[in-house]
Amino acid sequence: HLSPVWCKPFLLPVTDIHSAVYISVFDQDKNHKTELLGKICIPLLNIESSKPKWFALKEKKLRGRAKGTCPRIELEFILKWNSLKAAFLTINPREEVYLRKSEKFKRRLLNNNVARIK
């Protein structure tokens, strides 16, 4: 059971208070091989400034819980932003990026297209 302590501050510029912070946690063994322990995505508007909080780590696609016994990380944020700019972006949001669901591979369609070419 590992309980690493980093106490490492990071300064991240925030351009839009409506965005989110994505964090990936990796483990590196003695052979310098890295392994993903888990990921989290935290919307900036859900962060309570200057209050340490535990976050559950999720698997690679951020859907289910990461492997291990209670995989989590404790983080503390000090969040500062320009209230005027945040209000402007709330009223005039940036263009949203939508993820397209990839279509399932269809073997019959492939075979039909290959047959048409022949």
Per the principal axes of the C-alpha atoms, what is the gross shape?
flat
Placed side by side, the strands forming the largest sheet appear as 1-2
Overall mean pLDDT? 83
Instruction: Give the distance, in angstroms, between the N- and C-terminal Cα atoms.
Output: 59 Å
β-strand amount: 15-25%
The H/E string reads EEEEHH
Radius of gyration: 21 Å
Describe this structure in words.
- With 118 residues, the chain is an alpha+beta fold.
- It is built from two helices and four strands.
- It has helices at residues 83-91, 107-117, and strands at residues 20-28, 34-43, 53-56, 72-75.
- The chain has a two-stranded antiparallel sheet with strand order 1-2. A two-stranded antiparallel ribbon has the order 3-4.
- Strand 1 and strand 2 (34-43) form a beta hairpin.
- The protein is flat, with a radius of gyration of 21 Å.
- The N and C termini lie far apart (59 Å).
- The relative contact order is 0.15.
- The model has no long low-confidence stretch (mean pLDDT 83).
Features:
2 helices, 23% strand, two-stranded antiparallel ribbon, 4 strands, flat, 118 residues, alpha+beta
Strand and helix layout:
Layout: E1 20-28, E2 34-43, E3 53-56, E4 72-75, H1 83-91, H2 107-117
Antiparallel strand pairs: 1-2, 3-4
